[in-house]
Amino acid sequence: MGKTDVLIKMPTVSSIISQHAAEQPEKAFLIQPETNQSICFADLKRNVDDISRHLDDMGVCQGSKVAFMLDNGIWSAQLLLGIMASSRVVVPLNVVAGQKHLEYVLEHSDAEVVFVEACHMQLLETLISDTNCTAGTVMVDPVSGPMWPNLSASATPAHSPSEDDSALLLYTSGSTGLPKGALLSHRAIVSGGTNVVSGHQLTEGDRALCVLPIYHINGAMVTIAAPLVSGGSVVIPKRFSASTFWKRIAEYQCSWSSLVPTIIKYLLDRSADEEFTFGDDARLECFRFARSASAPLPVVVMREWESTFHVPMIETLGLTETAGTVASNPMPPAPRKPGSVGIAYGNDIRIFDESGKQCLQGTRGEMVIRGNNILDCYYKNPDATSAGFFGNWFRTGDIAYEDEDGYLFITGRIKELIIRGGENIAPREIDDVLYRHQSILEAAAFGVPDENYGQEVAACVVVRDGHSCSEDELRGFCEQSVGAVKAPKRIYFMDELPKGASGKIFRLRLADLVS
Predict the structure, then answer these.
(1) Kind of pairing, strands 393-402 and 365-370?
(2) Per-residue pLDDT at 175
(3) In the predicted model, is pLDDT for residue 216 greater than 80?
(4) Of the four listed, 1, 93, 275, 365, which is most buried by Cβ atoms within 10 Å?
(5) pLDDT digits (tens, 9 = 90+) for 297-325
(6) Is 437 exposed, middle or buried (0-12, 13-18, 19+ CB in 10 A)?
(7) Which CATH number applies to 419-514: 3.90.470.20, 3.20.10.10, 3.30.300.30, 3.40.190.10?
(8) Nearest to 316 by CA among 226, 255, 407, 387
(9) How many whole angstroms separate alpha carbon 256 and alpha carbon 147?
């Protein structure tokens, strides 16, 4: 489900690595600025083959799930690609998602092995002890790589997956609050990377600065898979730093970077303190564009970026279920429309009404997508898979319209997801935590506007008679389960929550009640 009727023969992650290793073996592909380490395509080929052979010797069968709990770096990127290239399915773990989320993903994904850095080992041990997970662990040194078990790596050739083989299992929160695992094939991964290459006119001469975590679809597909497809290169620091962003652009001569609105705001806020003269500094002539995704970019912020840094900001649209980018504003000199996610690249995108019929141009409806980059299914969740499609059209849950030039404008979401700094947060996930507190009778989380993050999480609660609790107590209670990112920043105490005749809470009214 989710594939077009006519499938085009596609390469795989493995075949692309092999092609670059043969044609440009000494060209740098991955660079880590903290250590100034560089991995060329020949190194990448040797290392991913080594990953495959070691997984063979550990008894990890083809098609098995292999997870990683790693910060960004040359080894997390190589394990992301190497696990896929070995005919296994990579499961990136979001280390800041909160313990309950991670426990669910570890159990649900059937991961047999977890690659982990020392800084995350204690968290992983806690997760394994609190679940039925029986996954083995392999420590990863950020400089030297995996510390393999005392097994002799076999001399058998590395496996060659097909385009239909599953490659990536990435979890995203659904409207119920339970994470859903989007299962993506090699065809989807390569198509997703190709869409970025096409939309941004990337070549082997382009170099990306990867500042988004590669356990998210944006970091993984846009700034790892796309340069792999184009034969370009990636500078991949451990994490984003506003104070070093422009210095790294200049030092490593990066030509582009994928950002989210929160990071864009951080860079604007400190622009006056930078050493560079933007628009007239030879050190930054290499930087030809930045792109924004994962959350709506306010028009005023886009204009401030371009007037401050004199670099085009390209607004785009991508989802976990679509292996990243599906639409983008065209590159200059083609027209860009502020407030629009642009036009389709590598996909058919249409606007459907509730019955699944295409809407007239300019009419709002649900955005649906069809293409080779669409997920195969939600892992072990046939109901969600069925509900996620109109035939072979994937339902995004976004309310949108198409203008007379084919540009897409998203005006809201059908579901009640909160989008905080590019992170999708299901309100019910927060509700469920609050309801576990002994003092809470009723609870409902919702999104409120926020200058830095686009939206921030808030909640309204009703306290049981005879009980008491403070806002700080409830916030700390939530942070223990879902992490600081998802925990409500404001909690409002009410006598009752607005409800309909059936008892359903009117969640969308809450923001107005507390404003």
Answers:
(1) antiparallel
(2) 40
(3) yes
(4) 93
(5) 878 789 999 999 999 999 999 999 999 99
(6) middle
(7) 3.30.300.30
(8) 407
(9) 33
